[in-house]
Specification:
CATH superfamily of the largest domain: Cytochrome P450
CATH class of the largest domain: Mainly Alpha
CATH topology of the largest domain: Cytochrome p450
Largest sheet: 4 strands, mixed
Strand content: 5-15%
CATH architecture of the largest domain: Orthogonal Bundle
Shape: globular
Number of strands: 11
Strand order of the largest sheet: 1-2-7-4
Length: 492
């Protein structure tokens, strides 16, 4: 023992002893960390158990509350809002085997969104914000937007005078073209094969299916075909992505050999940047590329064109608002000067409020018990935020069902997830990663459509007779495509 004591006091203890001491310290600190984390979870559980469970409608054995959603003629986000009016903004639902809590107030949603996050989302948010979909990167993609929207304007302008155009089809086509070029660069031939697969993936993860409701029942999963469809989609995506990755790796290798680095960097698309990141950080390449391109696809290929279609629908239904927004078209038709178009910005915000394309958040299962707005949310409960209900809250919004862009002229309300009453791109730390890209596409499309054309409803349709019915899918779009008659505008 005296020898050990002398060694410890000596200036140069032997290397094996140093390694042993470091190992002991690592084990000690790791144990303390794990125990503190477990104690925190137990403390949260004990704290949560002292609060009541949220109220909710009566439920049946086995199916729970499914019948109260399935047999309603209202779309699911509207039906959940109706139930919340009866049972409160924090409402419990049993859907098959799963416990769910629906949040329909800005206070409850904000409290939840500020805390629901994970290490994976923090890493991905940092990557997207700083590298892939940063404001700087979005601005650098402007030439692609300008070129594709220029083609759209030329196409519409070339239509026979007095003929109606299917604005929905035109907008989705230009959105997909921009998405393809942003994600794949010059590999346009992959657009026709990859984007349909991306859309299938989004449908699979964004909707309700029998496997989510009865996860322990393998027979139902087999009968429904959900597992088989998911495997098929995964195989198709894997083949396409491997070809995509191989093509980009080969191309970048050739460019590195025959051209300088600066020129190659200027030609980088999203896949090139993702490959560089994933190779450096040793993460799963295909999974990261699939998720990030789906983000771009949602923001630019679907969400932005459908938002523009809703904006045009509301302006056609409210011609006095169209007159106001077109008064600004002589000012500018340039993304860099969007702040000069205050009424257009208000129109877009009001459309985001009335027609959030993702009215419900993706259900997220909590790993530990929490307390939201005075109610206990037990472990493994799926939390859903009803963004649509919050945006129609009559206690905050005057005449919430009416299209009133002026409400945003007198006060600053952010639509990027920081304001607790407006969540067009989600909220809190899990706000949509493609938000800045999507917003840029929305404004670029609207500025050009409203600058270059006047618009009329076909078949002598009166503004108030325009059908505004919704269709619930991956996003909430118009049930029927919007047809309008473009009239080229040549200035005052």
């Amino acid at each position: 023992m005296e020898q050990v004591y002398e060694i410890l006091l000596s200036n140069k203890p032997p290397l094996p002893l140093i390694i042993i001491l470091i190992t002991i310290l690592i084990i000690l600190f790791s144990t303390i960390y794990i125990l503190k984390k477990q104690n925190k979870k137990q403390s949260n559980k004990n704290r949560a158990s002292s609060f009541p469970l949220p109220p909710g409608p009566w439920k049946l054995p086995i199916i729970g509350n499914i019948h109260q959603l399935a047999f309603s003629s209202a779309l699911i986000h509207r039906r959940l809002a109706e139930l919340a009016e009866q049972y409160g903004p924090v409402m419990q639902l049993k859907l098959g085997e799963t416990s769910n809590v629906v949040l329909s107030s800005p206070e409850a949603a904000t409290e939840y969104l500020r805390t629901s996050d994970g290490e994976h989302w923090r890493r991905m948010r940092k990557l997207l914000a700083m590298e892939l979909l940063s404001e700087k990167r979005v601005k650098s993609l402007r030439p692609i937007r300008d070129e594709e929207i220029g083609k759209l304007v030329k196409l519409i302008g070339g239509e026979p005078a007095g003929g109606a155009v299917n604005l929905h089809q035109l907008l989705v086509a230009v959105g997909n073209a921009m998405t393809s070029r942003t994600a794949f660069g010059k590999v346009r031939e992959l657009e026709s094969s990859f984007l349909p697969v991306a859309r299938q993936i989004l449908r699979a993860v964004g909707g309700f299916n029998i496997g989510d409701i009865f996860p322990s029942n393998r027979l139902l999963l087999i009968i429904s075909g959900a597992e088989r469809r998911l495997k098929k989609i995964h195989q198709e995506a894997d083949v396409i992505l491997q070809g995509l990755i191989d093509e980009h790796v080969s191309r970048r290798r050739r460019e590195t050999e025959y051209s300088d680095t600066a020129e190659a960097d200027d030609d980088e698309d999203l896949v090139d940047m993702l490959l560089a990141y994933t190779n450096y950080n040793h993460v799963e390449v295909k999974a990261i590329i699939m998720v990030r391109i789906c983000d771009i696809f949602v923001a630019g290929g679907d969400t932005s064109p459908l938002t523009v279609e809703w904006v045009m629908s509301e302006l056609m239904r409210n011609p006095e608002k169209m007159v106001k927004v077109q008064r600004e078209r002589g000012k500018v038709v340039d993304e860099a000067c969007i702040d000069e178009l205050q009424y257009l910005k208000s129109v877009v915000k009001e459309t985001f409020r009335l027609h959030p394309l993702a009215p419900l958040s993706v259900p997220k299962e909590g790993r530990e018990a929490v307390v939201i707005d005075g109610y206990q949310i037990p472990t493994k409960t799926r939390v859903i935020v009803n963004y649509w209900a919050i945006a129609r809250d009559s206690s905050h919004w005057t005449n919430p069902d009416q299209f009133i862009p002026e409400r945003f002229l007198d006060t600053y309300i952010d639509y990027k997830g920081f304001d607790s009453h407006l969540f067009p791109f989600g909220g809190g730390r899990r706000v949509c990663p493609g938000m800045d890209y999507g917003i840029a596409v929305v404004y670029a499309l609207l500025m050009n459509l409203l600058y270059h054309f006047d618009w009329k409803l076909p078949n002598q349709l009166k503004p108030r007779d325009l059908d505004m019915s919704e269709d619930f899918g991956v996003t909430v779009s118009r049930k029927n495509n919007l047809y309008l008659i473009p009239i080229p505008y040549h200035g005052p």
